[in-house]
């Protein structure tokens, strides 16, 4: 079949596949589900899912903080009236299960056969203001939870439907904000926090940032392509190939039912900059052959034969770098690694089908006449090559010093994460969350499942006393600013049956008294706080609370101390306890981060080693390939340690991705050297010729990669910022190592053994 006819057939097939991809991409949705970041397959996750099925999720709430007018307190009748009106409005909203507010908090009192819920606050009776405020400050659980210690702000807690998705969640938040405005609350006077708020903000920002990053990448890459090739087709054809691969990758992701989240949002940008490598190597080699006077057809055939081998290997190593992320137990990272790895392979397919077809159908391009002394790049690269070899001792010495310093600095890296890790310190959402840290109990939830030993009930006096002992530890030593448990219920009921007197808020002193109280608890079982803390059959209970977001390092220390306390002071023949909850699961991710990162890097290094061994059957060449690519990784690890950047979910992917991408240029260089040595007998001349042939493509692709990843530094998410910055730095250091260490290592290791490199090219190369 003639090449032109074959090219048309290829374009038709690819167009049909692209049309199908467009259909699926149109159905792609953005999503930020907090639960997706739990460690999949972990026994603690299964336990929490069962636990939340009985007691509800610990993060299905929204905190609304309201500040009193300047110079006034929250006990001002007019302010309380607005708070009460707002409370009633929110309670009537769809998807709101329960609202806890200072104006609907009551002090239950049992008289005769009836239960009277006496409000703590009476906005319509100003004369009771002093009496109400005094009672509030004496009542446990109100100050620091619903009312700030300085009486300048209050909190309304909205308990929402389980796992509320973004559309109804956004509607609820919009309705609350509208009512706040109607009630006269300025934006500076109220604060919102909770999973629903973070979910709404994250998804909106993902959509906006994805468009910004892609736009910046397109502009940057277009400029670099024009600077390199100075022809319209040298710009348009690579863009068509890579955008087609992105379309296919996103279409496949949508077809598999995967949404765009905080991690997969990086796929288009990542693929856009990574996917340019093959097209640039192909076009550079194609233009070089045309410059030698070769026909368009022969130039294309030679290019595909010589580039196919190196490009195939580089696509393989890059995709492996992404596929190793599938070792992660965190679903968004797993999906990101899987679909980006597949998309890299799709880019390779399009580079060797779509790109040749388009080049074949285009007229032979008019090339610029090279200067008399040779191509403009040759002079620059020739001088670089001579300088590197003349200063080889300096290159090796500086590399060694940087390596030693980086390893020492990298030892300072710590694994640490917080609930809103990906937001910068001055982000408005984070400032709102910090408001609750500073004035109220905090936003980090605490959960402990408690089960009485066989033959006992939650309302057993010994069980309650041990639970109270745990409560005391949690408030005094652990750092909980608010805590509730079955003990809270029993104390509240005892107080209610003793006239609501605060001094009666304590556990019964005898089993007989407790038995009388338990028989009365059925009067309160319909109250939401009772259902949320004890199962109806009293076979299981819950200790729940909130505290500041102290970070995973501090939380791990607190949990270790808590477990030590429980081992020493909790009698397992009376009560069984188990830490659980969403915060506990997020902290557990840190236990897996180091293992996942080491596993991913190990797989990556082993696969690259096997590939090099299969090609060259030489351990020396393995070192030649690995050293220039591991040195930049270690230097960037040193930069992280020096800058105090913590290892967390978002930054844990940096090293495996960077290594997989950085090794590409080395593979291209070595594969070209292998081909050159079949024609050139001198190793030195072969290395120099390869340096001149591959140098331009290596520099251009590295500039595109560094520039493309640098667009991510404009992200409002810290994790995305560091992915862009640190991978960009790794690739920048990588191209320097490629152009300095690599030729030195080849000439040093193979000075007397060039035949070890000079092997027949595998069938992939033609």
TrEMBL record:
Membrane topology: Multi-pass membrane protein
Annotated compartments: Cell membrane
Main location: membrane
Listed SUPFAM superfamilies: Multidrug efflux transporter AcrB transmembrane domain
Keywords assigned by UniProt, alphabetized: Cell membrane, Membrane, Transmembrane, Transmembrane helix
Any one of the GO CC terms: plasma membrane
Every SSD domain range: 239-361
Pfam families listed in its UniProt record: MMPL
Gene3D superfamilies: Multidrug efflux transporter AcrB transmembrane domain (1.20.1640.10)
Transmembrane segments: 210-229, 236-260, 266-287, 308-330, 336-362, 394-413, 593-616, 623-643, 649-670, 691-715, 721-750
Keyword Cell division part of the UniProt annotation: no
InterPro entries on file: MMPL_dom (IPR004869), Mycobact_MmpL (IPR050545), SSD (IPR000731)
Protein name as annotated: SSD domain-containing protein
Species whose genome carries this gene: Hymenobacter wooponensis
């Amino acid at each position: 079949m003639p090449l032109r006819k074959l090219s048309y057939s290829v374009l038709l097939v690819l167009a049909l596949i692209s049309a199908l991809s467009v259909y699926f991409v149109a159905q792609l949705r953005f999503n930020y589900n907090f639960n997706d970041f739990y460690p999949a397959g972990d026994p603690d996750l299964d336990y929490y899912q069962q636990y939340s099925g009985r007691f509800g999720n610990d993060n299905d709430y929204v905190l609304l903080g309201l500040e009193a007018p300047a110079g006034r307190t929250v006990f001002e009748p007019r302010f309380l009236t607005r708070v009460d009106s707002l409370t009633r409005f929110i309670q009537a909203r769809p998807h709101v299960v329960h609202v806890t507010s200072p104006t609907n908090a009551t002090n239950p009192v049992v008289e005769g056969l009836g239960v009277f819920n006496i409000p703590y606050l009476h906005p319509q009776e100003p004369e009771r203001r002093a009496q109400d405020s005094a009672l509030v400050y004496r009542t446990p659980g109100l100050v620091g939870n619903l009312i700030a210690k300085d009486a300048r702000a209050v909190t309304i807690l909205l308990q929402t439907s389980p796992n509320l998705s973004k559309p109804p969640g956004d509607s609820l938040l919009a309705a609350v904000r509208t009512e706040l405005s109607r009630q006269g609350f300025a934006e500076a006077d109220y604060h919102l926090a909770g999973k629903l708020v973070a979910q709404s903000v994250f998804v909106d920002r993902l959509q906006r940032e994805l468009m910004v990053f892609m736009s910046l990448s397109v502009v940057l890459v277009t400029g670099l392509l024009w600077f390199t090739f100075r022809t319209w087709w040298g710009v348009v054809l690579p863009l068509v190939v890579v955008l087609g691969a992105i379309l296919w990758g996103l279409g496949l992701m949508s077809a598999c039912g995967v949404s765009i989240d905080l991690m997969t949002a990086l796929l288009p940008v990542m693929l856009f900059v990574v996917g340019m490598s093959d097209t640039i190597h192909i076009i550079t080699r194609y233009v070089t052959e045309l410059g030698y006077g070769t026909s368009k057809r022969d130039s294309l055939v030679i290019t595909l034969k010589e580039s196919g081998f190196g490009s195939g290997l580089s696509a393989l190593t890059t995709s492996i770098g992404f596929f190793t992320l599938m070792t992660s137990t965190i679903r968004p990272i797993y999906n990101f690694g899987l679909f980006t790895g597949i998309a890299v392979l799709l880019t390779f397919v399009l580079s060797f089908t779509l790109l040749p077809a388009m080049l074949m159908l285009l007229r032979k391009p008019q090339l610029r006449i090279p200067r008399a002394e040779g191509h403009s790049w040759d002079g620059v690269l020739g001088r670089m090559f001579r300088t590197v070899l003349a200063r080889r001792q300096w290159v090796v010495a500086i590399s060694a010093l940087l390596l030693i310093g980086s390893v020492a600095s990298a030892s300072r890296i710590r694994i640490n994460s917080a609930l809103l890790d990906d937001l910068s310190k001055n982000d408005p959402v984070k400032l709102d969350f910090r408001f609750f840290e500073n004035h109220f109990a905090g936003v980090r939830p605490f959960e402990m499942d408690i089960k009485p030993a066989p033959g006992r009930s939650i309302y057993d006096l010994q069980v309650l006393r041990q639970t109270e002992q745990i409560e005391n530890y949690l408030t005094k030593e652990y750092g909980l600013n608010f805590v509730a448990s079955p003990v809270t219920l029993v104390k509240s009921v005892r107080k209610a049956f003793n006239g609501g007197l605060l001094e009666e808020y304590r556990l019964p002193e005898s089993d007989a008294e407790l038995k009388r109280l338990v028989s009365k608890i059925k009067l309160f079982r319909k109250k939401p706080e009772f259902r949320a803390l004890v199962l109806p059959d009293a076979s299981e209970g819950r200790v729940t609370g909130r505290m500041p977001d102290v970070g995973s390092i501090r939380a791990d220390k607190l949990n270790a101390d808590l477990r030590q306390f429980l081992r020493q002071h909790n009698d397992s023949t009376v009560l069984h306890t188990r830490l659980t909850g969403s915060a506990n699961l997020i902290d557990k991710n840190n236990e897996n981060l180091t293992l996942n990162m080491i596993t991913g890097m190990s797989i990556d290094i082993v696969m690259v080693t096997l590939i090099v061994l299969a090609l060259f059957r030489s351990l020396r060449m393995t070192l030649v390939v690995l050293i220039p690519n591991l040195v930049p990784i270690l230097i960037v690890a040193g930069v992280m340690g020096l800058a105090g950047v913590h290892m967390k979910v978002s930054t844990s992917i940096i090293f495996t991705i960077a290594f997989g991408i950085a090794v590409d240029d080395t593979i291209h260089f070595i594969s070209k050297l292998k081909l050159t040595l079949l024609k050139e007998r001198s190793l030195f001349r072969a290395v120099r010729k390869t340096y001149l042939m591959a140098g331009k493509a290596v520099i251009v692709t590295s500039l595109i990669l560094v520039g493309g990843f640098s667009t991510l530094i404009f992200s409002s998410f810290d994790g995305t910022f560091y992915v862009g910055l640190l991978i960009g730095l790794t690739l920048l250091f990588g191209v320097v190592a490629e152009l300095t260490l690599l030729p030195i290592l080849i000439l040093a290791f193979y000075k007397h053994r060039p035949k070890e490199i000079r092997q027949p090219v595998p069938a992939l190369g033609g």
